[in-house]
Design brief:
Elements: E1 7-12, H1 19-28, H2 31-35, E2 39-44, E3 48-49, E4 67-68, E5 71-74, E6 80-83, H3 85-99, E7 104-108, H4 118-127, H5 130-142, E8 155-159, H6 167-170, H7 173-176, E9 181-186, H8 192-199, E10 205-210, H9 221-238
Parallel strand pairs: 1-2, 1-7, 7-8, 8-9, 9-10
Antiparallel strand pairs: 3-4, 5-6
């Protein structure tokens, strides 16, 4: 019953990129072809225009316009706020209604901007929202905060996702804990500590490590088989 059925996945891009760029990054990693028999991906743009400099490893290689799901900042007391997340939730709700139904979500943060410093690096470090947005949406729906009138989002796939630190958003992590999740994390990712915090937020996460940094990697056969096995399991669950 599942041989002609594909999972429908909504994809959330990284900080100051776009849905088109996310699609191109998947193509360059060879994952679009490797997974095309299992998933149909809808890439969308965040509703907020990029509010600052474009990463050095994005602008020379990918054309704009560029978007962001939010822009994170920290006050003098150390409290985090994520400007623009409400608009992003509304945009995701519209995408789920217009392009859905979807079985799950996939999100990515950008590649590490080598040579960045000061405010530019701070913006990159605190604002990488693609994987964070994908996982948060699961918790928002399961807690009844958003996406109430759309079919259940069953799973998420996070490339270098992080756990956000805004108190307004942290409350959604408990609701998403039972959801199936798969996480791809680089051994040389400078912020893998934050990715591990997101991984620990799920009861039964599947984790795939690679030897590179904060990127969408081309996967070795054993890792690709694990990713495909995860998707097969979600496909079987959706077909019950």
């Amino acid at each position: 019953m599942t041989q002609h059925r594909r999972l429908r996945v909504l994809a959330t891009h990284s900080f100051r990129t776009s849905g088109k760029i996310f699609s191109e990054q998947m193509q360059r990693a060879g994952l679009d072809k490797a997974l095309e028999d299992l998933i149909e991906v809808c890439y969308i743009d965040a509703p907020n225009a990029a509010s600052g400099p474009i990463p050095d490893d994005v602008a020379p290689y990918f054309q704009g316009p560029y978007h962001e799901w939010w822009n994170a900042s920290r006050d003098e007391q150390g409290a985090w706020t994520y400007e623009g997340w409400q608009r992003s939730v509304a945009a995701m709700e519209e995408a789920l209604r217009r392009h859905g139904p979807f079985d799950g979500l996939m999100g990515f943060s950008q590649a590490r901007p080598l040579g960045w410093a000061g405010q530019a690096f701070k913006a990159w470090f605190t604002g990488r929202p693609g994987g964070a947005m994908a996982s948060l949406a699961i918790g928002m729906q399961r807690s009844g905060f958003a996406f109430k009138d759309t079919p259940p989002l069953r799973f998420c796939i996070c490339f270098a996702g992080i756990r956000v630190r805004d108190p307004q958003l942290e409350c959604f992590y408990e609701a998403m804990r039972p959801a199936p999740s798969l996480h791809i994390i680089g051994d040389r990712d400078p912020v893998k500590r934050l990715t591990n915090q997101l991984i620990a937020s799920f009861d039964h996460p599947v984790v795939i490590n690679h030897t590179r940094g904060h990127v969408i990697p081309a996967m070795q056969p054993p890792d690709l088989q694990r990713l495909r096995a995860f998707l097969h399991a979600q496909l079987q669950e959706a077909s019950l």
